[in-house]
Amino acid sequence: MLIYGLHDIVAGAADLFGGTVPEWWAAAWRILAGASLALAALFVRASVPGGLALAVAGLLGLQSISLHNDPHIYGDLLLWPQVSRAVFSAALVALAWLGWNSSEDAAAGSDDLTERGTDGRP
Q1: 39-44 long-range contacts, Cβ below 8 Å, gap at least 24?
Q2: DSSP string spanning 3-64?
Q3: Are 10 and 98 in contact (CB under 8 A)?
Q4: C-alpha distances out from residue 49 to 42, 43, 100, Å
Q5: Rounded CA separation 98/116 (Å)
Q6: Is the Cβ–Cβ distance between 69 and 82 less than 8 Å?
Q7: What is the pLDDT of residue 73?
Q8: What is the pLDDT of residue 25?
Q9: CA 107 remoteness from chain centre
């Protein structure tokens, strides 16, 4: 997620200063959505509550601005790149959710050790 967010920050800045997208706000939207995804990646990694929701919001923001930019850049809405972006986003969310649950399980296991002592005996 972090690399995807950083990629869109850089690509949005290139659009903003390079003039690929006709509207400045579309490039700014891409930069902000990429920044929220990069921030969410850090929150998800640290298991901060709301981090996964912020990641989903960032991914949906990037999907929506991509839907806006396709007709401007290519003259038509490209279906397969949009579907692949959506599948990739769903895979990122699923992996983050699975990682979140495994970190909670690991934290629950470490609580058992602190209750029993360092050698594992009660």
Answers
A1: 39/5, 40/1, 40/5, 41/1, 41/2, 41/5, 42/2, 44/1, 44/96, 44/99, 44/100
A2: HHHHHHHHHHHHHHHH--SS-HHHHHHHHHHHHHHHHHHHHHHTT-TTHHHHHHHHHHHHHH
A3: no
A4: 12, 8, 10
A5: 28
A6: no
A7: 83
A8: 93
A9: 24
Q: Which residue has the tokens 């959505």?
A: 33
pLDDT given at position 108: 60
Q: Give the pLDDT means over successive 10-residue stretches in the chain (122 positions).
A: 96 89 90 97 91 95 93 89 93 88 61 52 55
Residue 87 DSSP symbol = H
What pLDDT shows up at residue 10? 96
pLDDT of residue 7: 96
Which residue matches tokens 């401007």? 72
Place of tokens 């209750």: 115
